[in-house]
Amino acid sequence: MNVKTVEGLIGANTNVDLINTPLRVFQDAERKGDTAAMDRAMGYVNECQDKVKEYKAKADEGMKEDAKEAKTENNKDTDMVEISEDSKAAAKQEGDSEPVEPDSKDSATAADAAAAEPVTYTKAGDISQPQPESGANISVSV
What we know:
Blueprint: H1 3-18, H2 20-32, H3 35-76, H4 85-93, H5 107-115
Helix pairs in contact: 1-3, 2-3
């Protein structure tokens, strides 16, 4: 986790907790009718709210940096394949269809896979046969 994220979250949480004190002072001053104390207390509340917004922005920035870093970390483990223009042209001349992009999905294949029965594989990689249900009934009386 990024330092900015941690600092932002802790700072925002601390300032949210700090707002309770001037709010309590504001409520006491309101009961007493002391408008000057109410104004001072609301000034402190507004300062704390501003700090919460600043820390939230810092946490958001840190989270963006975390996401960017995670993306680059994941790309290190991925092999990239690039097809040259000459290879694409040669495939087209041989009558092959247009190359399929790796991110495209075939909706018919996805629908067929969803409709298929679930399959269980053994440790060797073979499809295991489902066990037939015994159909035996057990009755217990006490």
